[in-house]
Request: fold
Amino acid sequence: MGFKRLFLYIGFTFLFSSVLKAQIINVESARKVTDTSGWAGDLSISGAYLNINTPIWNFSTKSDLQYKNKKHLAMFLTDWSLVQSKENDFNNALYLHLRYNYKINALIRVEAFTQYQFNKIKRIDSRYLLGGGPRFKLLEKDFLKIYFGSLIMSEWENQNNNIDEIVHLIRSSSYLSFTVLKDDMIEFYSTTYYQPSFSHWKNFRIFNEEILEIKITEILTFINRFGYSFESYPILDAPKSTFQFSFGLKLEF
Reply:
């Protein structure tokens, strides 16, 4: 492999590592661990440029906004990634997610959510989700928190940009997540989701994400993220499994 082709391959790998978004959105990693009521959030923006015979741009932005008090928690999440040249959009992926939690007692919460999503690589022209269910606190220590959720969701998916071909499924959406905290400077998150269809149990999705965050300053954090997703029945010629590795900076406010 020539030097230019090798460099082009490395460049494409770097660009696409930030846009191979999973079918399942990891909401757990966006929850703000705070002991006080009020607003919290963060915003991250990244970009890249590669020019070998043709220019290619990569841009992504992600924001998380949360409001919390003793009984209620509301979250609004956005994520958009774009990789394009003058001739083509190699990928264009977006999701918008709104979630509400109500605290019943120290161990049990009830949550409801809705989501809109599209993803060019995953062949998702549009996907709408609406669901809810219980969330359980399995363990809470100063350095370790473990949660389990067992939700039901309704899914409407447009696979061919044709309103007459919308696929509707009812899925279970279960997840197990844990968070490790170290001296308020290092945080590690691990979340695994399992989403089978009630009408066809062989139709399922699995997603796992590992995130390491290291604080640089009070408002600036370095992030290292690894994700793996698998779908037993992908859309059209979309891949069954994808890997994602990325790193960057997060600004908190």
In short: The first helix runs from residue 3 to 17. The radius of gyration is 19 Å. The helical segments are 3-17. Residues 1 and 32 are 46 Å apart (CA to CA).
